[in-house]
Write a structure and sequence with these properties.
CATH class: Alpha Beta
Largest sheet: 6 strands, mixed
Distance between the termini: 32 Å
Low-confidence stretches: none
Strand content: 25-35%
Number of domains: 1
Strand order of the largest sheet: 1-6-5-4-3-2
Order of helices and strands: HHHHEHHEEEHEHEH
CATH topology: Trna Endonuclease, Chain: A, domain 1
Helix content: 40-55%
Mean pLDDT: 88
Shape: globular
Length: 212
């Protein structure tokens, strides 16, 4: 209810989020962020999610990064709703020039409340630690050459098809950039399964508290 009021969802969007088990997903999987992101943007963990639902793209099981990128641009309004309130779209394949080389950042947004650019890099496979190197490079380029003086340091979001949370935590623990890694889900999750997992988690928490 609180999120619905904050995001000002329509009835249709609220139904979608209920079907997508948003509450269960958030409760079971809070976002894993770098210590630098937590330090520079203390409220960022309430802005970002660990999983983003993009079932509206109707992606094939063997979709490419280009399919994902194109689908998000074609469904930008719905993707903005999934990202959350205060995200503003700046550009796709945003050009960055460093030295004599040209680079293209997959997606660039601005978050009004955080007052920061948000760079999103897309990966259709499993997260690998080396992916952060490219994202960190893009954040450095944004902060040096594109960020305005009154804006806060840029934030990086690596959006991938799957990830191992322990690998993510290790990779982010010594990162010097404000960044996080999240999954995109191309299909509606099994809500009953997530509800059962959440109930199990809550029962274990109650048991731990009663024995402490």
């Amino acid at each position: 209810m609180q999120t619905s009021l904050k995001e000002q969802w329509s009835f249709r969007e609220l139904q979608r989020q209920l079907k997508g088990a948003l509450f269960e997903r958030i409760a079971l999987s809070p976002p894993i962020v770098s210590p630098v992101l937590r330090q520079l943007h203390p409220t960022a963990e309430s802005v970002f999610k660990d999983h983003y639902l993009v079932e509206f793209l109707n992606l094939a099981s063997d979709h490419s990064e280009s399919d994902l990128h194109k689908g998000l641009i074609q469904n930008l309004k719905r993707f903005l709703t999934e990202l959350g309130r205060d995200f503003c779209f700046i550009g796709s394949e945003h050009p960055l020039q460093v030295g004599n080389q040209d680079f293209a950042l997959d997606l660039l947004f601005f978050h009004r409340d955080l007052n920061a650019l948000v760079a999103i890099e897309l990966k259709v496979g499993r997260f690998e630690p080396e992916h952060l190197g490219k994202l960190n490079f893009y954040l450095e380029a944004l902060d040096r050459d594109f960020r305005k003086p009154h804006e806060n340091p840029s934030i990086g979001l690596l959006l991938c098809a799957s990830k191992d949370d322990e690998v993510v935590e290790y990779a982010l623990s010594r990162s010097l950039s404000p960044a996080l890694v999240a999954e995109y889900q191309a299909k509606l999750p099994d809500k009953a399964f997530l509800q059962a997992k959440l109930q199990e988690f809550l029962e274990q928490s109650d048991f731990s508290e009663s024995n402490s």
